[in-house]
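Record format v2
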Amino acid sequence: MIEKFRNTSIITKILYILALILLFVWAVPAVIDYYSSVSKYEKSAKEIKSVSSKYALNTNAKPFSIEAFKESTKVLFSKVNINSADNNRYNVSIEMNREDIKSFHTFIETLSLRYLVQIEGALEFNANDDDIEVKMTLVEL
Amino acid sequence: MQNQQYVTITHYKEREFYFLNYAIQTKDGFITKEIEQFHESEKEQFIERIQTLQAMYPKNQIISLSLSANQVVKDKEDENKVCARIFNENYVVQDKIDVADVPTTLYFSPFTILYEEYKHKLNEKLTLMIGLFDRKLYIMFATEDKIHQSWTLGTRGLTEKQVADRVYKSMKAYYKISYKFADNIEMLVSDESPKLLKVLREELSMNILPTQKTIHNILHNMGSEQSKFNSSYIKTFLSSNPKELTSLAKTESDVSLNNLNDIRLNNPEAGMDSLENDNSVLDKVKGIFSPKEKEEEKEEVSKEMGLFSLFPLLVVIGVGSYFTMENETIQNKIAISDAQSYAQTNNTLLAMTSKDIFSSMGKSAELKSAIISNNNIELKGVVWGIEPLRNALNGLYNNGEFVIKPLENFMTEFSFKSKV
């Protein structure tokens, strides 16, 4: 085999050497990186799943959609308005009875476990005798 | 007429002695003369004696035996080594041949001699041919169409039992690679060794009838006919001078064209054969100096290797690309997962802050408006129990700014600002 290799052309030798260099400089590190990333992802996914299980949520977070969000919040609160803004942002207004404030807190705690969104900035509360209105901005992840 | 006789001069070296002999080739066989022996310190006399014989018999072949242990039978010729064709597609190959400065026109391998001796006995059954020359065993497994395997075994310092054991192990080794056992064993011995023969018979449980011949007689026989030696001598071209080749070819040609009536080469059939063989020798000589075929062979090997060399490169590129793309996908997933974790923490902190503020109101106050973030809070509302509210809020945010303002309707408004 070595004798055969010696008798081969310079191009063949270059191809073999190139294959070896690519193997050790690119392919092997790519394989190692991939398995390292898989391990990191699995760890992260496990942590999120563990938090979800505390709230009895068994499904993974879905990409955000206005319709699905409205559908799931209208049963919890008196009134929900949502408008799309720039840069994957949504202005949300929720009205509720004062007694439902606990549900609102739980809703906020689990929001990122249900949808791939984050509350940006502050929550703005305005209240009268019986009702509370909350305004917030959601940004898609 | 004496100088018209065709003579074969044979010599070989065993330990520190040169052995020299010559024979007059006749139609009925060769007539050998007395064997002469020279110590290696008398090399000059030995060479002079050969030259004298050459002068006496211009029609001659000087024949010797290559007793190198590194020779082996292969399927292909090796351009980098010295080779001799045995038959069909089998060649004896050895790294080099030491021609030294002793005149020699033909070298033979023991393997060639073995084949020449027993070729008429070969058939489809596997035959083990053993040659014992200068305390070395030359072993060949052959059938009528091919030599399958060959080995050289040294016997120096070994007992006959150990030698027989080595032969048996060679048979076992061959059985392992081919699942065939030799059906027949032929043995050509140049040294008288009845004890070895007896032990071999016992050890291998086979009937072996040895052929006892001296090396000189074997070599005289090899040199007796051009058709016999033309294709089977070891070509020493790698180490010899091309002029010698030309003279060798010329000598052979002279022999065939100017045969004497009393030499075997003179019969008409052999004459035709010799002409054909001459052509083949010349073709081979031309082939050696014209590298076309070898280059073609090299090109083929190169092409084959070139195509083959693309395969590992493609595999590496394929594997690298696949894992790079998969890694990018998983990195995106990790980024989303990290963002989700961060969002979850952010939202939970907001919820906790909000919960704390609503709890701190208790029955002392009612919140009218609030801006709650994870950096700061701003609260406004109506308060009934100022101190409990102040204490509760200061308990949560001790650097906050708590302000109260009486209203016209006898109520009191509060505002609170703080960093979280």
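Chain B touches chain A through 48 residues (CB under 8 Å).
Chain B is about 45% helix and 25% strand.
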